[in-house]
Amino acid sequence: MTDKLLLILDKEARQTDAEGIWPARSIQALRDSGLMGLTLPADAGGGGAGMRQFAEAIEKIAAHCASTAMIYLMHVCGANMIAASSSPRRAELVKTMTAGKAVATLAFSEKGSRSHFWAPVSRASSNSGSTILNCEKSFVTSAGHADFYVVSTGAIGAKSPIDSTLYIVEKNAPGLESKGAWNGIGLRGNASGPMSIRNCHVDDNARLTNEAEGFKAMMEIVLPWFQIGSAAVSIGIAEAAFAGTVAHTTSARFEHLNESLASALARLARMRLAIDSSRAYLDHTLLRIEKGAPDAMLFVLGSKATAAEMALAGTDEAMRACGGAAFSRDLSVERNFRDARAASIMAPTTDALYDFIGKAVAGLPLF
Ligand SMILES: Cc1cc2nc3c(=O)[nH]c(=O)nc-3n(C[C@H](O)[C@H](O)[C@H](O)COP(=O)(O)OP(=O)(O)OC[C@H]3O[C@@H](n4cnc5c(N)ncnc54)[C@H](O)[C@@H]3O)c2cc1C
Fold first, then answer.
1. % the chain with pLDDT above 90
2. Packed helices 333-340 and 223-251: angle between N→C axes, nearest 10 degrees
3. Can you tell me the mean pLDDT for 159-168?
4. Residue 347 C-alpha to ligand 1 middle, in angstroms?
5. Cα–Cα dist 72/91, whole Å
6. Ligand 1 atom 19: residue of nearest CA
7. Among 70, 113, 168, 333, which is least packed by CB within 10 angstroms?
8. Residue 74 CA to ligand 1 centre (angstroms)
9. Domains assigned to the chain
10. What is the DSSP letter of 37?
11. Rounded to two decimals, what is the model's pTM?
């Protein structure tokens, strides 16, 4: 990751947040730096990087611009799903993404099943050899900006709520429409607005999984990349808040006492320990994945939950340590505070992760 790239992210971050605009210049800088293909298979021209290298890269991006990091995370999830598919177009699509010519994203969450993305309420149908998609997606990062949408929908003739299939829908596909602007309190550059897919006819080349095998692909391919990336984004945001808090509390002075804001020392210590603990948990998770340990998935679930909780608490400490200067938006820690809130309600939400982890440790079925 070059200093030039980080400088561009820094330069764009404030305006991206203030105006709530998709950060085209920052994404162009990611394209130019070769990061769009970082995790794609080397045999298909990609960078072949594993989750550890990805986590290091996205944490740095998030510390400079969390909106850009979330757009990148959704791209990596979508791109890896496309690369893992048996679509006849796989090689061509991977080549396009590796060259930085396409941004991918996930269109999983639906109005009907809300944060339970694993159970889409939409159903695909078929007519004279073509498949027809009709879905109301509630949140799609990079809506209207992405080139490749990885779309989930109930399988044709689905028997259970988790019988789904994944498809790639390209940006100009008839029936694909963005349904409104994004005005989130944080990650304001994400363009994570709703989209509808109406009467969209796709052929077999668009199929990323076999019929009714979408759930398996979401859990085994997409989820690990999303969880690890989301944990790293939370850690990056918390690191930025920590740096901002150190800078402010060591420079602002009580002139009548000739002291800096020494009252913040315990807050700084708590933030530091919490960030380091979260990073240690993520490192342990990555080790379990690298070793192929049977309990790796339990840690994958925990990594996003622990990092999201840490970033909520850490950015709250930052706001309190920096006082009115942060509240009145003079400092970037207030952006970190708002950005940090997304991870806990992005699916699987922290509540849902606690539910899954609780079931797993109690020996109960997850679904
Ligand atoms: C910034 C941002 C970007 C996003 N980008 C994308 C994207 O690119 N693609 C995509 O598909 N989706 C995306 N989403 C959607 C996201 O993953 C969630 O689906 C969405 O935030 C859920 O919001 P909701 O109001 O529907 O939640 P609800 O499902 O209504 O949940 C409300 C609350 O209920 C809790 N809850 C739900 N189920 C349980 C349970 N079983 N046990 C305990 N508590 C529970 C939740 O934790 C939450 O606190 C994005 C969301 C945000 C905020």
1. 93
2. 150
3. 95
4. 5
5. 21
6. 115
7. 113
8. 15
9. 3-103 (1.10.540.10), 105-212 (2.40.110.10), 215-361 (1.20.140.10)
10. G
11. 0.97
